[in-house]
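Reopening: structure tokens for the iron/sulfur cluster complex, inputs below.
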Amino acid sequence: MNIPLRDFSELELKKEIAGLGEKPFRAAQLAGWLYKKAALTFEEITNLPAPFKEKLKARFCVNSLSLVSKDISAEDHSVKYLLRTQDSHLLETVLILQGKRRTICLSTQIGCKMGCRFCASGKEGMIRHLSAGEILDQIAWVNQDQQCHSSNLVYMGMGEPLDNYDHVLKSIRAAGAPWGYEIGQRRITVSTVGVIPGIRKLARENLNQLKLSFSLHSPDNAVRAKLIPSNRKYQLDEIIDALKQVRDQFKRKITLEYILIEELTDRDEDAQGLAKICLGLKAKVNLIPYNRIEDEAFKRPSREKIQAFQQELEKAGIRVTVRYSAGQDIDAACGQLRLREERKARPKRS
Ligand code: SF4
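Re-run output (same inputs, fresh job):
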């Protein structure tokens, strides 16, 4: 496997180029192609000498991912890319369009060990982390395909970002850097189900414009542990304590993600518990009506129930948005398309 060139920070790229006996300015030239022009192949790079390109080709690749399929939602025009890694794993990247805003939802792992019951990505366990380069290569695919620069990033695709802390952090720095994609921290959101060591580490980074989103999904420890098995390891009150550290450090409001599942997370006591946590964290809430995945029997509440739940929170003075998953008609919910393709590709047992 060749090493993705986007795996390197600016300094590391300079060292690699120097190691090949080339002049330092070649690193800036190469970074321009990688980030500003979102090149996918060496053939697109026109202003580097052929012998230098040959040296690069022997060890590195411009983009480590290949396109398997691309689907455009007829409902909201979101675009889902199914991409293949060099070692033949599938991952999903979604472009969400809202007015002028072009948000890429990035995957950070192949599979996921958190095993959340409402999520297809965790259904078959964890396979491996994605490298920083593989995360950044997803952005290049979207930017080149759309012939534009994406404006926002959300780390909410396949995988738990804070379980792959170092690669995710490196990709955030490259995404925001002047030599990188130049997507400011204010326009980057990292989502977590509550990996406490990662949250505490993040609070100590100089990333105070970054947005953090916490997947709460139930204010009740026992119910939450049923939905998110990792809650047995990282208990809710400890997670909230770590989130307070981020809230005090960062200049951004934390967002709580909350999936509404009929008779499990949409009860009156859930709204009251959620309101209490929100007020304590000074957080805002995204309500996400449940999107059915294979193998699970949960149900989405009625529209009236969703509205009543929203009003209950608003009465308590909480900022609430209801977010229906983008591109339901193209299986844009996290990991569904990959899971279906992996299962199709498997030999059938007799
Ligand atoms: S919701 Fe996120 S953390 Fe949970 S299994 Fe899916 S990808 Fe992993």
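The longest helix spans residues 132-146. The radius of gyration is 21 Å. Marking as resolved unless the reporter disagrees.
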